[in-house]
Amino acid sequence: MRKFLLSLVITLSLSQSVLAADSILKPNHPDHYAVQEGDTLWDIASMFLTDAWMWPEIWHVNPDIENPHLIFPGDQISLNYVDGKPQLSVSRGKTARTIKLSPGQPVATGNRNYKLKPRIRSSKLASSIPAIPLDAIASMLTTGRIVEQHTLANAPYILAGKADRLVFGPGDGFYARGEWPKDQTTVFGIFREGEVYLDPETREVLGFEAIEVGTATIEDKDGDLYTFSLGNVKQDVRLGDRLLPTEERRVESTFYPKAPSQYVEGVIMTVLGGVTQVGQNDVVAINRGTDSGLEVGDILAINKAGSLVVDRVQGDRVQLPSVRAGILLVFRNFEKMSYGLVLETEEPLRVGDVVQSP
């Protein structure tokens, strides 16, 4: 009887492990995959897992590899089972391998030894693949801000150009006037008013968008009148545009997707670009930020609101439940709102759809 019970316990434990693995892994998942140029970690994880954002939970950190979170073209991703649990691991390909040799160090080739001589050799460096498609959010990582209501109205402004023109281009000089910050910097961003973000649920103002249109460097100053040289330009720079000091903040370029540390629920306020339909790789603004516990790298499920239908039997209206229809990753957060990148969509989404912890 005791042997029977022990056997039953072992069988149940193994069954639970298999069920857990089946719930994480996709049907017909590969056992191995060779990383290709143009891949993202999200693409690769989607081949193995039902929820791609869970890949860090089963990622094997190989101590023999300096940084196993960096994946390169040519690397081999393998799925193994350890104690009945699935585990993804990486084997380095040629592009990620490095061999350290010093000038004068003998190199054995066949039966002969050769000494290395210093010389220049150029070759294309293999870059690690990103976790998500960074090109979709590249401009948002470094530009654009959410500011207080009067920040731009009180900021210095472009007064006139050195040349008689209304619109400026790279290399043009201009004069700016206003109240300048005490902690002086030489590089300023040039901004224009953008959207005012209102919480769709409470109508509270969550922030004022400041759109960066270019950058400029101080060349000279006379009282409150500063002379600038225009650097890079993203849009036409005009008279009246405002200047703000460049931000000193950490720019995230590597993301490790994870669930929020606490339950979060909000809505999509807008899609950047002025459209209402939401698709894959679109950038959206949501009405939750750091005050709700959201961090950069957090994953949120997108739930499409259920339809309102008429019950023909009872004659009343019934709101159908919402259904999961996509996934987004928070890549930039502010106090009361955040920007997210839509990584997956199973059907068309719209402004007003619900986002919540997966």
Looking at this protein, list some descriptive labels.
Thrombin, subunit H, single chain, 6-stranded antiparallel barrel, 37% strand, globular, disordered N terminus, 358 residues, 3 domains, 7-stranded antiparallel β-sheet, 10% helix, mainly beta, 3 helices
List the helices and strands and how they pair.
Blueprint lengths: L1 H23 L7 E3 L6 H8 L27 E7 L2 E7 L14 E4 L2 E4 L22 H5 L2 E3 L9 E5 L5 E2 L4 E5 L9 E12 L6 E18 L2 E9 L3 E2 L3 E4 L19 E7 L5 E2 L4 E4 L12 E6 L3 E3 L6 E3 L3 E11 L4 E8 L3 E2 L3 E3 L2
Structure description:
With 358 residues, the protein is mainly beta. Helix content is 10%, strand content 37%. It is built from 3 helices and 24 strands. The strands form 7 sheets. Strands 6, 7, 9, 10, 11, 12 and 14 form a 7-stranded antiparallel sheet that branches. A hairpin with a 2-residue loop joins strand 11 and strand 12.
Name the average pLDDT.
Answer: 78
Helicity level:
10-25%
What oligomeric assembly is this protein in? single chain
Helical element count? 3
- The helix/strand series, from N terminus to C terminus, equals HEHEEEEHEEEEEEEEEEEEEEEEEEE
Q: What general form does the structure show?
A: globular
Instruction: Report the C-alpha radius of gyration, rounded.
Output: 27 Å
**Count of domains:** 3
Strand content: 35-45%
Poorly predicted parts:
1-20, 120-125
N- to C-terminal separation? 43 Å
Number of strands: 24
